[in-house]
Amino acid sequence: MGLKGYDFFTTLPDSREEIKCKVCGCPCDVRRKINGPMSFAGAMAKKNTLHDEFCCPHAEVEWHEQALGIAREIEKTSSPSLKKIMGKDLKDVVKKKKVIGEWRKSFI
User: Fold this and answer.
1) Is residue 46 part of a domain?
2) Averaged over 82-102, what is the pLDDT?
3) Residue range(s) defining the domain that contains residue 77
4) Residues 20, 43 within the same domain
5) Are residues 44 and 74 both part of a single domain?
6) Which three-class secondary structure string do you get for the chain?
7) What is the residue-averaged pLDDT of the chain?
8) How does pLDDT run across 6-54, given as a tens digit for each residue?
9) In the chain, which ranges are E strands?
10) Per the structure, how many domains does the chain have?
């Protein structure tokens, strides 16, 4: 499963035809009319809601996990020059669909 808001999304049933992954731009796979929690808070409250789930088909692939990490770092930094450098790295990972440089998986 992906990270909500990046490569995993929940919507009300049939409210969206398609959602693209914010990491790689690929159309997400969809599961329609799921009856379950839509968020962590909903799960804790044991609140089930009918909804659709969209998830990038690459969400569990190593290059995509690296791309997600880079995308999150881009959002965190306030440095325009670092954003530009990391943006190039992100484009390279997505274009090549392979890990670049030395990278180890961390908790995302």
Assistant:
1) yes
2) 95
3) 62-96
4) yes
5) no
6) CCCECCCEEEECCCCCCCCECCCCCCECEEEEEEEECCCHHHHHCCCCEEEEEEECCCCCCHHHHHHHHHHHHHHHCCCHHHHHHHHHHHHHHHHHCCCCCCCCCCCC
7) 93
8) 999 999 999 999 999 999 999 999 999 999 998 889 889 999 999 999 9
9) 8-11, 29-36, 49-55
10) 2
Q: Is the pLDDT reported for residue 64 higher than 70? A: yes
The pTM for the full model equals 0.86
pLDDT at position 52: 97
Tokens found for residue 83: 């954003």
Q: Is residue 2 part of a domain?
A: no
Alpha-carbon distance values, 13 to 3, 5, 43, 55, 106 (Å): 20, 17, 18, 15, 33
State whether residue 55 is helix, strand or coil.
strand
pLDDT at 3: 87
Q: What is the DSSP-derived secondary structure letter of residue 22? A: T
